[in-house]
Inverse folding.
């Protein structure tokens, strides 16, 4: 047997109230409404939305279960004197269809008819491994106006990448690669034939497409006439010269230079060395270091251009 409560189609609490604070449960529409002391609707819940409303300024927070195919939380800011009703701000979570990367998107409230700024937080992806990252877009996240990406990639720390409207990418330099500089305050051995010097860096972390600039600096002493090319090699392959010494006779001097290298692959096992290549003559070349004038080879991450 049904109770009297179970047979009700519409229930008002307090019972019979038509003014002031009250709750209306409508069993016919599946809607619950909450009113304040001024008889203004301040909250509602039905199959299509869950709303919290500020009747004084028109601001509202509501749950929309259908627009994006997943529940989203929407925010209506207060009505402004000049513009009136803004487009809503939105938060929703979903996954990227192409690779199943989960994400949470936040759209800013906006002037009606204009595109809205968007922040998207991406989680890691096990199907096609990706690292968590954040994108900031001034144009609805569609990439039409470009976007900024905060991402942790490869073996380096968090990176800031700017993608332009045409898809071009610019990554800010990260500076000196931590813990990978060669610095010596003592002299090297004397080199009298083509050989790898002690200017060497093992297991340099590198990310495909990023440019590393190797800065070389050292005093030197050469005991006779001769010419030496100082070649920078990555994993045994010459990528450029950091200096060239052409001495008509024995001499002391200072040499410095740099070479840029764009990493072809992302790995943390690149070995760097400066090779002293005797071009002519029969001399001995020594690199000179001291406490106040160290000799060095320093890798600096220059970003993506």
């Amino acid at each position: 047997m049904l109770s009297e409560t179970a047979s009700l189609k519409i229930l008002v609490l307090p019972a019979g109230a038509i003014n002031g604070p009250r709750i209306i449960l409508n069993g016919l529409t599946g809607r619950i409404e909450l009113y304040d002391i001024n008889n203004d609707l301040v909250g509602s819940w039905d199959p299509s939305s869950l709303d919290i409303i500020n009747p004084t300024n028109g601001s509202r927070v509501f749950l929309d279960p259908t627009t994006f195919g997943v529940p989203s939380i929407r925010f209506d800011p207060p009505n402004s004197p000049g513009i009136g009703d803004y487009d809503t701000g939105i938060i929703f979570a979903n996954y990227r269809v192409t690779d199943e990367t989960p994400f949470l998107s936040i759209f800013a409230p906006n002037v009606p008819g204009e595109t809205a700024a968007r922040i998207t937080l991406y989680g890691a992806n096990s199907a096609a491994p990706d690292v968590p990252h954040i994108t900031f877009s001034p144009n609805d996240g569609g990439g039409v106006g470009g976007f900024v990406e905060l991402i942790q990639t490869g073996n380096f720390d968090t990176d800031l990448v700017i993608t332009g409207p045409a898809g071009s990418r610019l990554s800010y330099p990260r500076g000196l690669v931590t813990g990978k500089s060669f610095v010596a305050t003592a002299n090297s051995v004397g080199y009298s034939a083509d050989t790898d010097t002690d200017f060497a860096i093992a297991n340099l972390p590198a990310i495909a497409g990023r440019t590393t600039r190797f800065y070389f600096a050292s005093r030197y002493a050469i005991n006779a006439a001769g010419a030496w090319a100082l070649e920078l090699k990555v994993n045994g392959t010459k990528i450029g010269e950091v200096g060239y010494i052409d001495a008509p006779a024995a001499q002391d001097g200072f040499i410095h230079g740099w070479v840029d290298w764009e990493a072809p692959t992302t790995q943390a096992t690149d070995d760097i060395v400066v090779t002293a290549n005797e071009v002519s003559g029969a001399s001995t070349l020594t690199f000179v270091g001291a406490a106040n004038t160290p000799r060095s080879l320093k890798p600096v991450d220059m970003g993506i251009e």
The longest strand covers residues 267-281. The chain has a mean pLDDT of 84. The two ends are 77 Å apart (CA to CA). Residues 48-171 form one domain.
